[in-house]
């Protein structure tokens, strides 16, 4: 609808002299760059008549080059013909602009159609019912910060930011987890609302199911196997994200707060890239209709994580 109201910006992309500013952004086509420029134009357009002033298109392409390559700001500047200070300012401005629009592209599903589509997608892929997402964390390497340096050393001995994300089944949209725990604790009504899957590092909750620590019965073993294959989508998502935006795979030489914003900006771009392409389709012809999620029998027992998990395991994996 935004594109219907505002004309798409395309001319600027054709006049950028360095073709490398546009080409080579993995998963970001010219059309998507034009869409992004159109979406961000009010936030990035500068009130200046200087011939040297950067257009919205140039700012976006500089940042995409930085995100995609993970190179030093100086290298980006030398490659594209800008000084390091300009590149640094542009990275800050465009990152902030992307964070400003994150709620338009990175959000928890709330409408019935989206919820049912996600549940059905997970079930078709792995036969795990009523799943809304898979949750996990990934480390983004950073240089040693000057403030509170020991807090950023992870168990592998290097400095990093530990980022938590939830994704759906479509290779895969990333959800906003900043207030997710509070939302689920407050609003989750039981299995009817769906669950997310996490590894054993999380506490088992009615809305967050983890694998059995020591499965002894067949339905528990089957539950764990299906849980693992379903949850692998979040690991693939982190891999896709870091391949698309290599800045997240290398050491980011910035303050932790800025690194967190860059990850958020990359998540926005990742979801935009997905939303502008046809969704992945399973051609197995099996499973359920997209608008008809699997019916999960109501659980009337003690509403805690372990009992909810046992109910799901016995109903769906006891065959």
TrEMBL record:
Its cofactor is a divalent metal cation. InterPro entries: HARBI1-like (IPR045249), HARBI1_animal (IPR026103), HARBI1_dom (IPR027806). The keyword Nucleus applies. One of its GO terms (cellular component) is nucleus. It is found in: Cytoplasm; Nucleus. Residues 135-271 form the DDE Tnp4 domain. Its main location: cytoplasm. The keyword DNA-binding does not apply. Pfam families: DDE_Tnp_4. It comes from the Eukaryota. Keywords: Cytoplasm, Hydrolase, Metal-binding, Nuclease, Nucleus. GO terms for molecular function: hydrolase activity; metal ion binding; nuclease activity. Belongs to the HARBI1 family. Transposase-derived protein that may have nuclease activity. Does not have transposase activity. This is Putative nuclease HARBI1. It comes from Mytilus edulis.
